[in-house]
Amino acid sequence: MNQTLNNYAIAVAEGDKASLAATFATNVKIMQPAGNQPIDGVGKAATMLSAALIAIENFKLVRTFEKEENWGAVVFEGQLDGNVVQLIDQVYLDENNLINHVDVFFRPTAMAEMLLDKMAAAIQLQASKALIA
């Protein structure tokens, strides 16, 4: 398995922003479910993706898929308000073997907005704690 993809999968599953950021190219773009605009930049991307661990209960890595064309997919599962959910990250690597694009898919799609709201609340809580510390 590609080491970058493996590191990405583990970092997301553990909510490890620093390790996640280390897998990204500086021009990384994240397309989130139910979002119209990409999340640009390493810091914002790492914060957004690591917030999934906070928003989703029993969050776990299920499997990874790798293709020769410098892309792969990572599947995560968990529960959101008692409902089983699945996140699928389609990950693209650049010529330096760093992630430059991630398309995040979410099932069931009807709950995607709820997920984004919970992730936004988790990010806001983290930011307020950082200001207090």
Write the topology of this structure:
Layout: H1 3-14, H2 17-21, E1 24-31, E2 39-40, H3 42-55, E3 57-67, E4 71-80, E5 83-93, E6 99-107, H4 112-132
Parallel strand pairs: 1-6
Antiparallel strand pairs: 1-2, 3-4, 4-5, 5-6
Helix pairs in contact: 1-3, 3-4
Organism: Spirosoma pollinicola
InterPro entries: NTF2-like_dom_sf
Protein name: Nuclear transport factor 2 family protein
Question: Could you give a short account of the major beta sheet?
Answer: 6 strands, mixed
Helix content range: 25-40%
CATH class placement: Alpha Beta
Number of helices: 4
What's the structural domain tally?
Answer: 1
Based on the structure given, which CATH architecture is correct?
Roll
Distance between the termini: 39 Å
Q: Please give the number of β-strands.
A: 6
Unreliable stretches: none
Radius of gyration: 14 Å
Succession of helices and strands: HHEEHEEEEH
User: Within the largest sheet, what's the order of strands?
Assistant: 2-1-6-5-4-3
* Beta-strand residue percentage: 35-45%
Roughly what is the average pLDDT, rounded to an integer?
A: 89
Organism: Spirosoma pollinicola
InterPro entries: NTF2-like_dom_sf
Protein name: Nuclear transport factor 2 family protein
